[in-house]
Specification:
Low-confidence stretches: none
Distance between the termini: 64 Å
Shape: elongated
Bound molecules: NADP nicotinamide-adenine-dinucleotide phosphate
Number of strands: 8
Order of helices and strands: EHEHEHEHEHEEHEHHHHHHH
Number of helices: 13
Structural class: alpha/beta
């Protein structure tokens, strides 16, 4: 049945990982499309032995269930190509966290039930990518039929469903980006400082790894308020001032990051009951920078 077959628009990281994860759970992921035949073919090979590479325009006549996992800026144009390719019913979900169902307007105007299914996970190429989609949260929105399919996918992947109100979609995505990309950024800056302190770059990452992992684990198990340690949590303004002094001859982006992140750490310390005089002293040092 066409309506049971899943077709994936896009042959990148999410298309491949989600396609493979669903295929492994018995979903009929029958087609995958890309602008480039060779990329669609290698994605099909990665997803599973019964997956075939096709053109975007061929998907609607072959699949009643469309997963659109193309770059954010291409979602509207790919939806238009699918609509022009004859999409008239069925379901379509896109995997972008920053956009809502309005990005699929071309398809909803043709009678397709439209929605979104955003995996709250960072997805890379390669073997581990499909298993990284197991047990995660998925933000889901859209028409009744689309939401039902998105929830079915989340259930198959042993995931949790997050229903985000449309007006909060961008806020949701901002949180996702900060939790993922900013942790990477903080590690990058810490590595840069350790290299300046004389460590080899690879040794610096290895040295930081247990600290970062334990900090994340503590934030998850204890909550961020209880997990925060260090000079700002203690209200040690002298140490904070010495850090800023050590950063003073470097690019200002680093000292600015230290100060802005520090003010946010100070909000945690204050929430935990740090003495008001210490809060004021640390704030004074951080805001001077
Ligand atoms: N990677 C992540 O960590 C992650 C996590 C959650 C959600 N997402 C979302 O999932 C979606 C896909 O992300 P991704 O990381 O898988 O991207 P990706 O690896 O860069 O792959 C993007 C795909 O989009 C296609 N594409 C790009 N521009 C196009 C255009 N103008 N017309 C038609 N196709 C076009 C590319 O096709 P060609 O093969 O033809 O070049 C490629 O197959 C995005 O909405 C992203 O925000 C990503």
């Amino acid at each position: 049945l066409r309506s049971d077959k899943v077709g994936i628009a896009g042959a990148g990281r999410v298309a491949q990982a989600l396609g493979r994860a669903l295929y492994q759970r018995g979903v009929d992921v029958a087609y995958v499309a890309s602008r480039h035949r060779n990329r669609a073919e290698s994605a099909a090979e990665f997803i599973g032995p019964a997956t075939t590479a096709v053109e975007y325009s061929e998907l609607p006549s072959r699949s009643g269930r469309l997963l659109i996992a193309v770059s954010d800026s291409a979602i509207e144009s790919v939806a238009r190509v699918l609509a022009d390719g004859g999409a008239r019913d069925g379901i379509a979900l896109h995997t972008c966290g920053a956009k809502g169902t309005e990005a699929l307007r071309a398809l909803s105007d043709c009678g397709v039930a439209c929605g979104t299914l955003h995996p709250l996970q960072t997805v890379r190429e390669g073997q581990g990518s499909a298993s990284a989609l197991t047990g995660i949260s998925f933000a889901v929105s859209g028409d009744g039929k689309a939401v039902a399919w998105a929830e079915e996918i989340a259930r198959l992947l042993e995931g949790h469903v997050l229903r985000i109100r449309p007006e909060c979609q961008v806020l949701y995505h901002t949180a996702a980006v900060m939790a993922s990309n900013y942790i990477t950024t903080l590690m990058d800056v810490a590595q840069e400082l350790l290299v300046s302190a004389g460590l080899d770059p690879a040794d610096a990452v290895l040295a930081l790894a247990p600290l970062v992992r334990t900090s994340v684990e503590n934030a998850v198990t204890l909550g961020t308020t209880a997990a925060l340690t260090g000079p700002i949590a203690r209200g040690d303004s002298d140490t904070v001032a010495s850090h800023l002094n050590a950063l003073s001859n470097r690019d200002q982006r680093v000292s600015h990051l230290y100060s802005v992140a520090g003010l946010n750490a100070l909000a945690i310390a204050e929430r935990r009951g740090l003495d008001q005089a210490k809060v004021a002293a640390v704030a004074n040092v951080l805001k001077k920078n």
